[in-house]
Amino acid sequence: MAETLRAAIGRYKHTAALLAGETGDLPLDLAEMPVISRAFAPMVREQRFDVSEMAIATFLMAKAWGKPLVLLPVTMAARFQEAALLCRAGGPVKGPADLAGKRVGVRAYSQTTGMWLRGTLADRHGVRAEDVQWVTFEDAHVAEYQDPPWATRAAKGADMLAMLKSDELDAAIFGNDLPADPALRPVFPDVQAAGRDFLAAHGFVPVNHLVVVTRALADSRPEVVERIAGLFRNALEGTTLPVGRAALAPALALAIRYCHAQGLLPRAMEVDEAWEGLPPAIA
User: Fold this and answer.
1) Which of 8, 176, 181, 210 is 20 to 30 A from 37, alpha carbon to alpha carbon?
2) Superfamily of 82-202 according to CATH
3) Mean pLDDT of the region 38-52
C-alpha cells in the first residue's frame, strides 16, 4: 500500500471530493483546517505537511528565503480583491486615491489580498505602498520577514473592525468574511467595475491560493508529485481556475513585481524560479 501523505487543503466546491476521501490509490491524511491559512506558517517553517495549499504571496516569500517548498501549477482560489477594502460610509475616504497618508489596517502586511490591492493602488491610483500608514495585527508566515518602516503593529488584542468603526483606522482590508455593517462601504465606489479593469489590464483574476509540496517529496518521489498534480488537475476540471505553468505565468510575474515593490521580498525573482524543483513532466 502506498505511503499516506499528510495534506492540508481548504474547503471549496472543487475540493469536496478530495476531502471526502476520493483520492484514488493516493492516500491522503487530511488535516482538519477550518481556516486554511493556519496551515501556511507551519508548512513554511517546519514543512509539517507533504502537500499544502498556500497563498501566492506566502509562497513567493518562502521561495525567496530558500524554504524547501515546490510549487504545483494548480490554483485553489482566485478572486477580485476590491470588495475586501472597506472604509466608513461617512468617513474622509471617498475613493482609492484618498488613501495616501491614511491609516489602513490589514491582518498581516504579507497577506495576499493586501498585496494585490496595494499593487492596484500603485498602478491605477498613484498610491504607493509607502504612501500609506499600514497597521498590522499579525506576523508574516515566513519567520524571517519583518514589516517595512511604513507599517506599524496594532496594540496586542486590538480588533481591526472596532478600530475602523471608532476612527482609529481610515480603511481596512478584510478576508473572505466581510463584515455586513451598513456603517461601512467599499473604498472602490464600483467594485465590479474595478475588477473588470484589473482583468482588462492583466488578463487574469488575481490568484490567492496555490498548492505546494515539500522539496524532500519532490526530490525523492517525483512520480508521486506527478500523481498529486494530476489529482488536483482533475479536481479543477470544469472550473475557471488557471492550471499549468503557462496559465499561471502572468499571475506569478505580476505577483513577483508587486511583492518586490512592496518590500515583501529580500531580492528580485524571475518566474522560472518559482518552478524550481518541480518534476519536468508536470507542465
Assistant:
1) 181
2) Periplasmic binding protein-like II (3.40.190.10)
3) 98
